[in-house]
């Protein structure tokens, strides 16, 4: 049933991709390493524009005869929210899987053991060719392989660990040659502290995990993997050796770009005046895809810093900094809050000429004042996406939301804006929820 659903999903994605005129280019190149011509297919991103000069990260896929459509269309689906646009390069195996993907020669299989030559083909011929002919970046490459091609993925990681940034390895044949690469993994992992790659490795839950050598590989990583590696071994239940690639690609791409989002961290209040050692509420809405962390001491947050999951009660001694952390750091984003330590704003006399019921409104400006009934922090929201300038009492702000400590009394208020007159909301000390400032609290001439 699960396999049927996966197949239907890929067919649906394939049909949708066809409707969008997927840019697939059939290409080939001669390899001096392999002494033959190799066939490849290249899929360019939807937003590809030759005039833009933009370059893309590249996903290299083995067994292109089987996996090209699976990976290409699954990548397009995941790209909707979880990863940036990428180029997909599919390499057809051309019947040479047991030759190209195996690290040693076995008795009875005289052409096996050609992994070194295939790795040389990829590094010295295929990648330079792709990066010269197509808008491809020369960094952050992704490798995808299953079964023997998964074994080759581990071989590439162990023998040239900086060639790829990420590896998606589905049900790898780690049993090859009595677990040759299992031993090599155990020997080399401790010395790879300078490698910052991500590896997403999958196996079939149960006896198959042990038979393929994936359970043993998991144990080795748990014991010996350096902290610099972003890795995970995932057992899948109810899958076959051939169906594993569907889940591996979907989950693996998300794992590879974990934390990726095009949305900047959003929080309110965006600025303001705060009192020393007195906390104030900060309302924040983390993107469900994002991994946001914060600090209040002026340092840049790391994954070890407190994680943001919603509303915070903050006391800010120095500065407030948010960082959305992505596994691929170029997609991380840092935002600093502009809060200042100060005192409670003094109120002003309320003129008898002013009346409650709202603010005066002229084109581009709201003016008048606001009456406060309770001492404490007030958070104001001016509902506009355009630039705005606000003066309250003797202070000014240029953000859509701000926090100020106020005392009971009256405060002059002026809002300069562009476009349509904005609404004004607040969070008052006695109410944890935001709402429109009551007209009875606003004064006009």
Query: How many helices in DSSP terms?
Result: 9
Q: Separation of termini?
A: 71 Å
Helical content (DSSP H or I, runs of 4+): 10-25%
Radius of gyration using CA atoms only: 29 Å
Task: Count every beta strand, where a strand is a DSSP E run of 2 or more residues.
Answer: 26
Low-confidence blocks of residues: 1-20
Largest sheet: 8 strands, mixed
Binned strand content = 25-35%
Strand order of the largest sheet: 1-2-4-3-5-6-7-8
Overall mean pLDDT? 90
Shape: elongated
Class from secondary-structure proportions: alpha+beta
Describe this structure as you would to a colleague.
This protein has 9 helices and 26 strands. It is an alpha+beta fold. A hairpin with a 2-residue loop joins strand 17 and strand 18. The longest helix is centred in the first third of the chain and has 19 residues, at 115-133. The chain starts with a helix and ends with a strand.
Can you describe this structure in just a few lines?
By secondary structure, this protein is of the alpha+beta class. It has helices spanning 2-19, 64-78, 97-100, 115-133, 148-159, 176-188, 207-212, 214-224, 244-256; strands at 23-31, 36-44, 57-61, 86-91, 142-146, 166-170, 198-204, 230-236, 267-268, 271-274, 280-284, 292-295, 312-314, 320-324, 333-341, 355-356, 360-362, 365-372, 376-383, 388-392, 395-397, 401-406, 409-417, 423-427, 435-436, 442-444. The strands form 4 sheets. The chain has an 8-stranded mixed beta sheet, with helices on both faces. An 8-stranded mixed beta sheet has the order 12-14-15-10-22-19-24-25, with no helix packed on it. Strands 16, 17, 18, 20, 21, 23 and 26 form a 7-stranded antiparallel beta sheet that branches.
